[in-house]
UniProtKB/TrEMBL annotation:
It comes from Streptomyces jeddahensis. The keyword Lipid metabolism does not apply. It holds the Pfam family MFS_1. It comes from the Bacteria. This is Hexuronate transporter.
Length: 492
């Protein structure tokens, strides 16, 4: 990792010899809107996999339809994607600190667009897995650089609001990915694509991603203090990503050759992720940054956010299938109902940011808000699981629970992001958010496949829902233990 991401010298020495980093010089509200657009398309790209797999299961088509355990296999594909996404979290933040956060954002969007399009072109299960792993590796560098830019170029009194407004693109993208996919598949069918109609959403989103990348590049180029230099960070990212892709794909191929059960492959992904976390921790200790990035408060925030990623990708990946099975509705009706959860973030993300900034302006901490949001989501998730156990709930009931729980769940995220950003100095934020999402993505890697295994084993989605709620309940305790740093005030 030292050779791929830069020298192993202490960070102060590295910064002293590095070229000046580009600084965004435009109005911060304009920056918010372009970053929101990046979140929108990147989340639509990754969300499309769930509805596509649901269509394959329903129509017994593609490489999922004839599988013995389609839910488990579908969840495994999601876990492979997030293994790739996870492994570039720290690398993306570290490279952003070194080469510029604007550069990494543009590279992420271009990479994701190309690989999403390729995901629609490929045929066969293994080729599709490889394409989705590569997509995840490219998209993984977006998060830490986006969070760093928002915090670095937004006034402190509006910082959490900015984090919330920008990440609301996540919810819009989730909504687009969930709702638009069935219609795009139907469009592909009307064009004579037959069993390959599932490719159409991937083609469309891949092209749109590249258009967004071009617009973002033009925006940053016009407002930066120097032109964007994409070559050096691209070379570093390729050198880091290709071995990771080989390792993840090799794990999947080994599974195919030896006939391992899918859940065992998921365990292998977890071991790979744990090894990467160990390597990153070792690199941080060696470069003398453990006193900033590996404090007790940072570890509490890192680990607590696993619950957010678990719940996010349980409901995002499987909500369409859950609603469809429990209400015996059509794929389109299920997608529209599931979209209530994703769409709630359009309100929840900025609302959470506004409330947190209001607390800061009063000289108070944001931790109490984070705890309240986590508790509310836990209670509502339990209510959702109980409604499934009751048998054939109405679409309106499920939609209402998904929407209200989504408000609290999405409000939680910018609050925690802002708490984390205030724990570290400016020059370490990219690395901090990289470690944060590297650890938290354990939840995203495990959630789809573990939930799929539970569904195939029990015949019900309720155990998966209760598991998600229980994990969120644990995070409440962890947030309560955090000693928060309030801007302009004492620790809280």
């Amino acid at each position: 990792m030292r050779d791929l991401l830069g020298s192993g010298r202490p960070v102060a020495a590295s910064v002293a010899t590095a070229e000046p980093r580009p600084v965004f010089s435009g109005r911060y509200q304009q920056l918010w809107m372009f970053l929101l657009l990046g979140w929108l398309i990147s989340y639509a790209d990754r969300t499309v996999t769930g509805p596509v797999i649901a269509w394959m299961i329903e129509n017994k088509a593609g490489f999922i339809g004839d599988a013995a355990n389609p839910a488990t296999l579908g969840g495994l594909i999601g876990s492979m994607f997030f293994t790739g996404y996870m492994l570039t979290q720290y690398a993306g933040g570290r490279l952003g600190d070194r080469y510029g956060h604007r550069e990494m954002l543009v590279l992420s969007l271009v990479w994701a667009g190309v690989m999403t399009f390729v995901s629609g072109v490929v045929t066969g299960l293994v080729a599709f897995v490889v394409a989705r792993v590569l997509t995840g590796l490219g998209e993984g560098v977006f998060y830490s650089n986006d969070r760093t830019l928002v915090i670095g170029h937004t006034p402190p009194e509006r910082r959490t609001m900015g984090l919330g407004v920008v990440i609301s693109g996540l919810s819009i993208g989730l909504t687009v990915g969930v709702v638009a996919t069935p219609y795009l598949i139907d469009w592909g069918g009307s064009l004579g694509m037959g069993g390959r109609a599932w490719s159409m959403p991937l083609y469309v989103l891949g092209i749109v991603s590249l258009l967004v990348a071009a617009a973002t590049w033009a925006f940053f180029r016009a407002r930066g203090d120097r032109p964007l230099r994409l070559g050096p960070p691209l070379v570093r990212l390729l050198a880091y990503s290709l071995p990771s892709a080989v390792a993840i794909t090799g794990l999947f191929l080994l599974t195919e050759r030896l006939g391992w059960p899918d859940w065992l492959t998921a365990v292998g992904s977890g071991v790979l992720a744990a090894a990467m976390i160990a390597v990153v921790v070792r690199e941080i200790v060696r470069t003398g940054r453990s006193g900033v990035l590996l404090t007790k408060n940072m570890w509490l925030l890192y680990i607590a956010f696993i619950a957010v990623m678990w719940n996010l990708w349980f409901f995002s990946f499987w909500s369409v299938q859950i609603v469809k099975e429990s209400t015996h509705s059509s794929l389109i009706a299920a997608a529209l109902t599931a979209a209530f959860n994703a769409g709630a973030g359009i309100i929840g993300f900025p609302l959470g940011g506004w409330l947190a900034d209001r607390q800061v302006r009063r000289g108070k901490g944001r931790k109490s808000l984070a705890i309240a949001c986590a508790v509310a989501h836990t209670v509502l998730a339990v209510a959702f699981g109980l409604s499934l156990l009751a048998g054939r709930p109405s679409l309106w009931l499920l939609g209402l629970i998904l929407f209200v729980s989504g408000l609290f769940f999405n409000a939680l995220q910018p609050i925690v992001h802002s708490m984390l950003g205030d724990q570290v100095p400016d020059e370490q934020r990219g690395s901090a958010f990289g470690v944060f999402n590297l650890v938290a993505e354990i939840g995203a890697v495990a959630s789809p496949v573990v939930s799929g295994v539970m569904r195939d084993a029990t015949g019900s989605w309720a155990p998966g829902v209760f598991t998600a709620a229980g994990i969120m309940a644990v995070s409440v305790v962890l947030y309560a233990l955090v000693r928060e740093r309030v801007p302009g005030g004492a620790a809280a």
